Amino acid sequence: MKILIVDDEQVSRMVLSRTLRALEYMVDVASSGKEAWEMYQAHQHSIVIADWVMPEMDGLQLCELIRGQSHIGYSYLILLTSKYEKQDRLTGLKSGADDFITKPFDRAELSARLGIAERIVQMEQQLRSANERLEVKRRQEIEIGGNIQRSLLMARPPEDVKAFEFAPMNLPSSQVDGDFFDFFVHRPTVVDVFIGDAMGKGIAAALIGAGSKTTLLRSVGTLLSSSSLENLPSPKDIVQHANRTLATELMRLDSFITLEYVRFDAEQMVATFVDCGHTKIVHWDSTCNEIHELSGTNFPIGFISDETYGEFSVSIAEGDIFVIYSDGVTEAMSPSKELFGIERLKHIIREFATESPFQILYRLRERIRKHTQDGELQDDFTVVIVRVGLSTAEWQHQLRVFPSRLESLSEIRHMVGTLSEDCGLVKIAIDELQLAVHEAIANIIEHAHARDGVGEIEIFAERITEGLEIKLLYEGPEFVPPESVTSQPVINTQRDGGFGLYIIQAYADEVTYGTEDSGLRFIKIMKRKS
What we know:
By secondary structure, this protein is of the alpha+beta class. The protein contains 13 helices and 20 strands. The protein has three domains: 2-127, Response regulator (Rossmann fold), CATH 3.40.50.2300; 155-393, Phosphatase 2c, domain 1 (4-Layer Sandwich), CATH 3.60.40; 394-530, 2-Layer Sandwich (Heat Shock Protein 90).
């Protein structure tokens, strides 16, 4: 154990130093409080023995500085003093001293007091190590919960449904919670969408959310099996069936689910809602260019086991926009503690109502990022935007978020391929862009996110005159690639051989690496039409 001694008297320093070394301690020596403080900052000492009375910086001031370093481990502080008064000792204790040794010191007493100091320092170190292990387990729990969210709670939007256009997104906060959403396609013109939020946070909420989503889908299947295609089970019957299944267990767990269940029907041109204590749906009515807030009066799932749920309907028209979201959107908080609020959400929808759902989602994400100044979200950002009919205007921007896992690569390649076709890229250019993006994502997962799949990758696609630009945004260490990779590296079994960088540079028309003002790293890959 290393001890730092500080005394402005040379003889006292020498005697104390020799005594401590004879007791087999490692010793550093300082002749002033200022010198001792510099030495302590460079090499934290477990025990500090300081003379009380010194010029410039005395022992009390040194104690106060050391106690102000709360981010490092505990040091046991002993003051050397000839002061005997009770008030003097109280002053020393208030400054952070743990013990006092009277000058001239007795060797046996010094050894005994150092034994106490060692025990206390070792106990603190053991406690700190235990807390660090608990923190590791807590982070592991968050990672498990995050995997549950990504794997079980969030769904891909339905494809080949021409009557509606869907844009979902989930951005997890620093905490894992129980947000979930899914789609159920009855036929190309009738689609159910539901979004829910399990009370609480952590892995428990994620598991409750996963179980609730499964129960809802099972309720749909159960009721469909006893009905005809022409007479689908109503949304309220589906929710009621799920509540009967879940309520007893949720009440036992002292939990509940807020839920928004919506059926979009392009045959009858009507949307039917069952609102169970969830956030208000925002509806852009394209026929009168007005914004409406839609909400019901039902209790959340799990409040009453025999609750009778009601539903309400609104007429829909081509171009109508519906935004279904969790409270993490409107409760996103600025550094000054101001909520984003529903009025800002409505303003964005009103401003960009003629654009595609993915463009609206992009605008919303950017406004919330600006509002929070890229601070941590306090709750999950979960949104599903539904447009009645397909957008007639060409999209300019699209934003998707994927978990930083190798399993995401297939879906990312599919996204890049679809967007490339929309932008008019030829087949070989599409293949090359998919390969370049694939390698860039793999590098992010492998290096920036340390292979453990923790984190997200935002993929921002922009249609440009020349073709398509893909920007990959992620958190992690800065990456400075070599200026050029002019020759193909030797292919071997090592991923760090530079082959991925060679592919990116060879198959992209332009590649840029950098850092956003927000601190997010990015890789921007551009591919021309010809």
